[in-house]
Amino acid sequence: MFARAMRVVVDRDLAEEAVQEAFVRAWRARATFDPSVGPIDSWLIAITGNVAVDLARARARRPH
């Protein structure tokens, strides 16, 4: 998950934040996980990618 986040955001601190947020989102959405669709690691990596993109976009919108 960290490697996926790093590929998106490139910043270590932001990648760590993305992984933490991904676990929070996964926990909240745990009822929607369907193991017949795919393994849990793929589900978590997809969530991590989405969170990382969200964080990268939010950072790009902030003024320097």
Rg estimate, integer Å: 12 Å
**Average pLDDT for all residues:** 95
Give the helix/strand class. Answer: mainly alpha
Q: Please mark out the parts with pLDDT under 50 across 5 or more consecutive residues, or reply none.
A: none
> Roughly what fraction of the amino acids lie in strands?
under 5%
Number of domains: 1
**Apparent shape:** elongated
- Tell me about the largest β-sheet: none
Please tally the β strands and state the result.
Answer: 0
Range of helix content: over 70%
What is the string of SSEs from the N terminus onward? Answer: HHH
Number of helices: 3
End-to-end CA span: 28 Å
Overview of this protein structure:
- The chain has 64 residues and is mainly α.
- The protein has one domain.
- The chain is 73% helix and 0% strand.
- It has three helices and no strands.
- Helix 1 packs parallel to helix 3.
- It is elongated.
- The model has no long low-confidence stretch (mean pLDDT 95).
